Amino acid sequence: MRNFDYHNPTKVVFGKGTISRLKNLVPPRGKIMLVTGGESIRKNGVHDQVMDALKKREVVEFSGISPNPEYDVLMQAVDMVKKEEPSFLLAVGGGSIMDGTKFIAAASKYTAGDPWEICSKLAKVTDALPLGVVVTLPATGSETNNIGVVSRKTEEKKIVFHADKLFPKFAVMDPEVTFSLPDKQVRNGVVDAFIHVLEQYLTYPVQAPLQDRQAEAVLLTLLEVGPKTLAQKQDYNARAGFMWCANQALNGLLKCGVPTDFATHRIGHELTVHYGLAHGEAIAVVLCWLLRHQRQNKQEKLLQYARRIWMIEDKDEELAVNRAIAETECFFNEMGMPTRLTDYDIDPAEAAETVRKGLERDQAKLGERGLIGPVEAADIVRASV
């Protein structure tokens, strides 16, 4: 097992009716800036619950954060922060809202230059506005990590940033708010969480048995509750299991002491920027093809995955690995998730060239061993037919 540091300061408030506890979670004084997306939280009553909990507080709101939060819109929110001078930010929504709010928190205090440097140069964030979150769409685990992703259309980039100052102070997680989610968003969330786990698990062994079994527990639970979340939309226990799995998938615990491979996400970001695929959709059309391409480098963990998750006992190890990858693709398909670019009428050859150019521009070397360069990434995308 590798050396690691682990610290997660976010307080989790989980369960039915927990939005009402906001009044005791936000700081007792100062103006609060609510950061939201579209109209869904008004239609499903979440906005009313939040405002009722904060009815004795001064609240201003910035709405309109879109999926794959756009830099120019976020900078409008930064301007609002400088005008209104809130002392606390409250994100209400899914991963995009949370990520966008993290950027707003950092950019509002950034004085060293252009705030885009927080993403483009991973400039050090020495100060940030404090923030909390109310989760309405489980998927990214952003509610208890210090990571965000921001897009900038003018540069055709979607970039990950992180800073210790960006851990939320608290995360309110009420599974009941997910009852009204469209099937597509639930599907995307389950698949996103599943892939988050695989990118920390399907690398190579480093004698970390506890981390392996923690990852396997999340995977097995998602296989169990994922279909239930679609079949029984108001099954509280299934939704609670899904919400908690999505959190555990990327709260930092699974990556402690182990190598990680987020190549699927990096390639998926290119597809999102250029073709408009939702995040979960983009990574779903990459993952299985990447596993097939990298099967020799991941053989030991892929075989473990086949045995422990899919209960495949074939003595032929190559057959067992092939079956495990196929079972993964079948699970995504059963959730209603396409796994091929052609399912979206996207030409894999054209997309491969687009991805190659994007990774060449950034001189990217991806994967747990840095063996996936622009050419290899293009080969992976080209196979998604």
From TrEMBL:
Gene3D superfamilies: 3.40.50.1970, Dehydroquinate synthase-like - alpha domain. It holds the Pfam family ADH_Fe_C. GO terms for molecular function: alcohol dehydrogenase (NADP+) activity; butanol dehydrogenase (NAD+) activity; metal ion binding; methylglyoxal reductase (NADPH) (acetol producing) activity. The keyword Oxidoreductase applies. Residues 189-360 form the Fe-containing alcohol dehydrogenase-like C-terminal domain. InterPro entries: ADH_Fe/GldA (IPR001670), ADH_Fe_C (IPR056798), BDH-like (IPR044731). This is NADP-dependent alcohol dehydrogenase. It comes from Desulfatibacillum alkenivorans DSM 16219.
